[in-house]
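Re: weekly structure request thread

Next one in the queue (187 aa):
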Amino acid sequence: MSRLGWLLLVLVVGLGGSTGLHADARVINVHAEVREEALFLDADLELSLGSEVIDALRNSIALTLVVEAEIAQPREWLWDRPLLSDRRRLRLEYHALSRTWMVTDFHARETHTFSQLSDAVESLSRVRAWRLGGWAPLADKPRLLGKLRVRLDVNKLPLPLRVPALFDDNWDLDSDWFLWGLSEVRR
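Done, posted below.
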């Protein structure tokens, strides 16, 4: 895309900010399970892409989402003590020539192709069999707190879109932390 094209895209994004649907991301549910002496997570996300985000995708701008998970030991007087953490990067992109949507999971080293955007977003919304780490260091802790969130990696966007992505609700794909206790983890 030429510089003039990028400039026009920034102007359209900046001036037309309030006309489209707003983007939103939420963590709905997280399930943790111990298998093979490791902690595995399954997460269900709810992702709503705004019209500006969809337009950017259709113009060959890929979105990278980061799913962050942390297992911590709660403390009374200080911040929670992190014991285990990991990140999972997911990319959504559109290929105009083949008219397909691609979802890439860098952690699992998998790419899936979809003919409909809704199917690609549904695939992004399900994180399955994520091996977070070994269970042995966590097994003797009486209380554990799990945290999970999803956010848009703004640094992977083209430079002209980074500022709108930081401040415009049409690009707000950052969820709050979803918290759960790990006392119910199956062993």
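Confidence is low (pLDDT under 50) at residues 3-19. The first strand starts at residue 24 and ends at 35.
Next request, please.
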